[in-house]
Design brief:
Elements lengths: L3 E7 L6 H9 L6 E8 L5 H6 L6 E6 L4 H11 L4 E4 L5 E2 L3 H11 L5 E9 L5 E3 L11 E3 L2 H4 L11 E4 H6 L11 H10 L4 E12 L9 H11 L3 H4 L3 H21 L2 H8 L9 H8 L2 H9 L1 H6 L10
Parallel strand pairs: 1-2, 1-4, 2-3, 6-10
Antiparallel strand pairs: 4-9, 5-10, 6-7, 6-9, 8-10
Helix pairs in contact: 8-10, 10-11, 10-13
């Protein structure tokens, strides 16, 4: 049995899946299998994968059911003791699985493991993720997952791993959520078990600026997801502040999108003492000015200045 099962959901990523798969096949650590679930792609994604002859790759098909269903399906087929997740448009550096193995060996009883990562904003601007905690050069326990994730999240799905047993014990990804399903699982685990962070950057998350504003139906689901922990928030200040920052981003996005009712509903769930002065000011700005600021974001990114409109 392989140590790792690499879980890749695949939906209309024909342009990216070759680079993704090559980044996995080029890993220094070789004890792994690759489980790909084609979630009803309408492009050539599946055909591209079928062109590979590697016996490490196992391709399964399902009708389009969403990323949570595809990941859960892949886990069901996985034979490895540990699951390492990767989206089909993200990339691993050659040391990725080796670093995850180091973290697992150092902290075998932890619930969730994540490597450091970088964010590709537009192919010319690539920046390291920014975290709200100090770390050295070795894998470490993150004492407060929510506080550490106030900027970028410590656990990004394409840099994350956990045991198959832990995944199943926590019920896997919630298929009722069409967005935020991975973060939902990480939160549930972080509330119960230790989180381990490896400081070496081993993954590149490809973020598209044009995709930064979610569709209306997804924003509604995200509102539901962010309010699923209200009982726990009442006694966990770090979780409350962490979710309030997520709500801030949602309130701003929906205001820019013209979803004024959802924006107001979201703002009503925020404890504004958890926001910075800049964030409060942005929420008070006229919608037209916010749209203008959002329009210039690609320009400032192209000039190596990332306007963190939705963050602190």
């Amino acid at each position: 049995m392989p140590f790792f099962s690499v879980i890749i959901p695949l939906y209309n990523k024909a342009k990216y899946i070759v680079a993704c798969l090559e980044s996995v096949l080029n890993q220094n650590y070789k004890d792994f299998e690759i489980i790909i679930v084609n979630d009803g792609s309408t492009d050539a994604s599946a055909a591209v994968v079928e062109g590979y002859s590697s016996d490490k790759i196992k391709l399964y098909h399902q009708q389009n059911s969403g990323v949570s269903s595809a990941r859960n399906h892949a886990v069901d087929k996985a034979e490895g003791d540990y699951l390492a997740f990767l989206d089909a448009d993200d990339l691993w550096k050659p040391e990725h699985l080796q670093c995850l193995r180091e973290s697992i060996e150092a902290f075998p009883n932890a619930g969730l493991y994540g490597n450091n990562y970088e964010i590709n904003y537009n192919n010319s601007v690539v920046q390291p993720a920014q975290f709200n905690f100090n770390y050295a050069t070795q894998p470490c326990i993150v004492t407060d997952f929510f506080k550490a994730s106030m900027k970028d999240t410590i656990i990004w799905t394409s840099a994350a791993a956990l045991s198959k047993k832990t995944f199943l014990d926590f019920g896997g990804f919630n298929t009722a959520y069409t967005t935020g399903q991975d973060l939902d699982l990480w939160i549930r685990i972080a509330l119960k078990q230790a989180i381990v962070f490896h400081p070496q950057i081993t993954m590149c998350y490809n973020r598209s600026i044009s995709d930064s504003l979610s569709k209306g139906e997804l924003n509604g689901v995200r509102f539901q997801f962010l309010n699923a922990y209200q009982t726990v928030e009442a006694t966990n200040k770090s979780l409350k502040r962490y979710l309030d920052l997520k709500r801030y981003g949602l309130a701003l996005r929906t205001k820019i999108n013209g979803e004024s009712t959802l924006s107001k509903q979201t703002q009503n769930t925020i404890d504004f003492s958890n926001l910075t002065k800049k964030q409060k000011l942005l929420l008070q700005m006229p919608t037209g000015l916010l749209r203008l600021l959002n329009t210039v974001r690609p320009y400032v990114v192209n000039n190596s200045i990332y306007l963190r409109l939705f963050k602190a």
